Amino acid sequence: MDADVIVIGAGFAGVAAARDLMDAGHRPVVVEARDRIGGRTWYRQIPGTDVWAEYGGMFISRETQPSLAEELARYAVGVTEPGAPESIGWVRGERREVGTAPIDRIREQLSRSSLTDALERTAKAFASEGREALTQLDVPSASWVDRLQAPDEAADYLRSFLAAMGGAQLERTSILPLLWDMIELDYTPVDAYADLGELITDGTKALIDAMAGGLDIRFGSVVTSVETTDASVAITLADGARIEAPTAIVALPLNVWADVSFDPPLAAPKRKAATERHPGRVSKVLAIVRGAPEGYLGAGWNTPVNAGFVPKPSGDTELFMGFSVQDRVDLRDEMAVAAAVRAHVPDVEVIQTAGHDWVTDPYAKGTWLAVPPTWFSDGTFARLREPEGRLLFAGSDIAGEGAGWIEGAVGSGREAAAAARALLGRS
Question: Which of 86, 152, 83, 54 is nearest to 292 (CA)?
Answer without folding.
Answer: 86
